[in-house]
Here is the input.
Amino acid sequence: MKNEFYDHYKERVIPALQKQHGYKNPHQVPKVEKVVVNTSVGSQQDVKQALEDAKAELALITGQKPSETRAKKSIANFKLRKEQAIGAKVTLRGAHMYEFLERLIKAALPRIRDFRGVSPKAFDGHGNYTLGVSDQSIFPEVELDKIKRNIGFDVTIVTTAQTNEEAKSLLSEMGMPFSDRAKKVATATASKEEPAAAAPAA
Here is the structure.
C-alpha cells in the first residue's frame, strides 16, 4: 500500500506510541482498521431525492460508492416505512481510508469556521471515535455553488486500540486536532511569547 499518510503512520506514529505506552512489539501498536462515513435523511420531507443527493455527496467526498441504509421500524410521524431506504454509508479500508483521513485532518477540519479542535470525549470505550460533521462544504472536493442541500454525517474511526486512552494517543499522533491538545499548545505558545518583566527603575 503506497500512501504518504500510511508511511507517516509506520515511520512516525508507531515509534512514538511504542515510546509512550511501552509496546515491545510494533504489532502491538494500535492502528486504524476502518472508517465508516454515514448519513441519514429520514427526517427530510423529500426522502427519495434527499437520499440521491446524499449518496452523490458521499461518493464525491470518499471516492467510493455508498450503500443504502434502511429503517429498522416504521415511524408514522416521519412517514417512514420499515425497510425504507433512509440513509447512506461508506466503509473505507486500506489506501482509500488513509487518503480520506489525511484529507479530513489536514484539509477539511481546518476549514470549519472558528474551529477550536474536535471533542476528546467522543470515544466509545472500545477504542473507536465518532466525529459529527454538520455539512459537506468543509471538504475541498465539494463545489459550493453546486450544493443542493446541507448534508450532515458521522465519521466513525474504528481502531484496534483496547482503551480510549490508547485510541486518543493513536489519533493524536496521526494529527487529529483534539480541543484539549489545542488548548495546551496555545497555553505553551502564549507563555513563551510573554515579555519578560521590566526591571524596576533605579
